[in-house]
Each structure stands twice: as C-alpha cells, then as structure tokens.
Write a structure and sequence with these properties.
- The protein has 189 residues and is an alpha+beta fold.
- It has a domain of 126 residues: Immunoglobulin-like (Sandwich), CATH 2.60.40.
- Strands 2-3-6-12-11-8-9 form a 7-stranded mixed beta sheet. Strands 1-10-7-4-5 form a 5-stranded mixed beta sheet, covered by helices on one side.
- The model has no long low-confidence stretch (mean pLDDT 89).
- The chain binds dinuclear copper ion.
Length: 189
C-alpha cells in the first residue's frame, strides 16, 4: 500500500513506456528459452535417464525385491545379501530409511532392466562415481535400461534429504566380468 495515494486514480490504465515493453518482451523470451532448455538438457546433458514409471504399492514393491533377493543371493556382506540375477535381466533395488537394499552384482556388458523405488520416503539415487541421479518416490516404480561398461565397485548415496540418517544412507553395486563361456545375454528391454 502506498503511503500517499497515486496522483492519478486510474494509474493502471496509463499507456506503457516503450522501454518497459522491451523489458517485458526480453523477460518473456528468456522464460521461453529456459523452459525449452530444460527439455533440451534432458538429451544433451546426459544426466537424467529416461525411465518407464509405474504406480506400485510400496509393500508390493518390497515383496518383489525380497523375492528377487531370496532367489538370487550369492553371499552376504555385513548382513546384507549380495544379489546376482541367475536368469533374466531384471534387477531390483529399494531405498528405505536409511539404506539401499540389497547389494547388486552385475556383469559388464550385459543389459539389465533396473527397477528402482522407495518403500517409505523420498530418496535420491546417486551412483558414484558416475553422474547418474534419479529421484525416488514411494509408490512409483522406475525401470531403466542399464548396461555396465566398467568393472569395479560402485557406491550409491542418497542425495535427497531424508532425515537423521540421510548421510549414512549408502548402497553398493559390483560390476564383474561375465563368466568365461557364458552365452551372450539377450539384450535387456
Ligand atoms: Cu535417503 Cu537421504
């Protein structure tokens, strides 16, 4: 509210200064540029992966991951199963307060359908040291095609603040060479 009332009561119906119009036009162009750049960056930035996304009940997702882990666990590390798919190319990972579960062991050069969801809270899947970031919500199952190109140990951290244990929320993915003589796996889809 102005301290003194405007001299002209119909102040909002005055003709607009040309300079002001220029600025409004520049702001509009910039806004449009930024909007379309978000879309372009999806393709040229190579940071956000295209995923298929489905609605799923968090409990149902947890059950799927547990079934996957039960049938494919090859060993345990610190009480966490290390899971390596024996057949098929579907792998499942869940985020929860405050852990990525289970540990996955994948083969280099094989294409996987990588399923990802949270069963409680919003988490951020960040694969280290690669530049892969996926926001993970309960109730949504993301599926992306993942083909590891390097062997080694990859860490997963949570990059979406999720409470007191956020900074300890980690996970692991191992990538190993495909066993000698193994038939080439069908391309994931
Ligand atoms: Cu999960 Cu931060």
């Amino acid at each position: 509210m102005a301290v003194t009332p405007p001299a002209k009561r119909i102040w909002w119906n005055e003709p607009i200064e040309k300079v002001e119009l220029y600025w409004i036009f520049i702001a509009l162009l910039w806004g449009l540029f930024m909007f379309f750049f978000m879309i372009a960056w999806h393709f040229i930035g190579q940071q956000n992966l295209s995923t298929e996304t489905y609605r799923i009940d968090p409990a149902a997702y947890q059950a799927k991951v547990e079934t996957f882990a039960e049938g494919n666990t090859v060993r345990e590390e610190d009480g966490v199963p290390v899971v390596r798919p024996q057949s098929g190319n579907d792998v499942y990972l869940l985020g929860r307060l405050w852990q990525w579960w289970p540990i996955l062991e994948l083969e280099r050069g094989r294409s996987y359908r990588f399923h990802l969801s949270s069963i409680d809270w919003q988490h951020g899947f960040s694969l280290q040291p690669t530049n892969i970031n996926i926001q993970v919500h309960p109730g949504y199952e993301h599926i992306l095609t993942l083909t590891p190109t390097e062997t080694g140990e990859f860490g997963i951290i949570c990059n979406e603040y999720c409470g007191i244990g956020h900074h300890q929320m980690t996970g692991r993915i191992y990538v190993v060479e495909r066993p000698q003589g193994a038939a080439p796996a069908a391309a994931g889809r």
